[in-house]
Description:
Largest sheet of chain A: 7 strands, mixed
Oligomer: homodimer
Amino acid sequence: MEKFEITILGCGAALPTPRHLSSSQIVNVREKLFMFDCAEGVQTALRRSRLKFSHLNAIFLTHLHGDHCFGLIGLLSTLGLLGRTADLHVFGPNNLVNVFQPQIDFFCEESPFRIILHEIDSKQHSVIYEDRSVEISTIPLSHRVPCCGFLIKEKPTLRHIRRDAIDAFGIPVSQINNIKAGLDYTSPDGDVIPNHLLTLPPDPIRSYAYCTDTTFKPSNADLLQGVTALYHEATFSSEQSLLAKKTHHSTAAQAAEIAKLSNAKQLIIGHFSSRYEDENKLLEEAKKVFTNTLLAADGKRIIL
Amino acid sequence: MEKFEITILGCGAALPTPRHLSSSQIVNVREKLFMFDCAEGVQTALRRSRLKFSHLNAIFLTHLHGDHCFGLIGLLSTLGLLGRTADLHVFGPNNLVNVFQPQIDFFCEESPFRIILHEIDSKQHSVIYEDRSVEISTIPLSHRVPCCGFLIKEKPTLRHIRRDAIDAFGIPVSQINNIKAGLDYTSPDGDVIPNHLLTLPPDPIRSYAYCTDTTFKPSNADLLQGVTALYHEATFSSEQSLLAKKTHHSTAAQAAEIAKLSNAKQLIIGHFSSRYEDENKLLEEAKKVFTNTLLAADGKRIIL
């Protein structure tokens, strides 16, 4: 299977601690790296992860609270010092340009690469990035400021060639790509060999949803239906559900409820309040609702 | 002796690494904390140091290159979340207000404390902060952008009472503060006991100079004369002296030459280029010129 791998660089909430950086992740789809949120210290975490700075393809910010974006200017600055020349696109909600363009103009004046800021409409579900491997769309969330999550969906891969059948029917090499793409084969004598005899189905399409920060928003289950892995914020335990409501965050049980309604294959909870010394309390709470849940941790890698 | 203690939070140059945060230090004078430079990740390093966020008194930025100030907005934001109410003064060169006021207005809108930015003239030596314990003045440096170091000098302490003499002369308790302040004692009979019989001299006045980033600037030796400890950047070894000149940095030997010309008691070198895996090379180079040199390290504490 082609690579589809998540590296969690930070999964703490507003107050970074020596244990947790604030929100930042890398999604590696076929060796292109996409960054989701960009907390203070993200460049050092990225270096620690041994992922390649040069493979960074685009950056997506859910919202403009500091714990999701204070690492952006440092990262952009470092990419310049490292000699990047490829354009870098940064997507984020309202005010992205207001807030970051002046900083970029001042601190990245000598940047050897172009930084292109894109303000996205966080209230609409729409595709905002697409290449031949992946499609990235927004998931409207409900927080104190404009905020959206992201759905990362790989493009369909080709069908798998059955080596034995190719040999048995004497298919020429020149036809292999057509057959992988699903075409039948017509021999020089006019015999038609149907594709299903020559191939096996492609790998199933994998998807990953990154949903933070948000109140409990079950209406998103539609958009998230059948997602391979769902990262959902679980800032608080249910004991703090009033506080969660007040601050527009979710509890671990609510994150799990979203995973259940979405028929997700796997749930990863994160964005932990610094009050929890032991996040297993949150894990247990979520697992009661959705069994296949795991705790995010800084540096953790999840292969889809 | 009263507390005068330096904690190095970061001593790397432009590129932060897992080994070195960029420039940031805390100087603790009698339990008031003064921060010098404020690199990305400084708030986590401060937490690790176990120094008290609530004792932070003022922040001083040498210049507005990212590796000296990208941690400011995160720190200010966190101080707000921690409920600080005391005013916080931030000193820095030209453009401090241009660059940081908009960020503060956006990200610290709900800050429970006032953040007051002071632009200082980095070309002049002048006292910019004073309280009853300490005086902080600027040291003009020569870098690619407006930049100044800082000289932190404690205020004179009182003379030490000689308990034995006080008892022998039968001095009343009410007179002790006057005698500590240097006055003679006149007894009810009119006898004058000279102060030098009743006291020992006060502790010598300690000072600390923080000089980064700068080319070799020997004219500063005058201002730095007799400094107790000098922190001086030593970005490169002498092998890279052309690069040092071009980028307006100093070599380890040049840092040591400044310490020697200044008759400093101790030199601490830092702001190491990330190219050096082993900074002992820089230490050896400096020690050839100035013996009492030590290498900065993240988390290192130096008691004056």
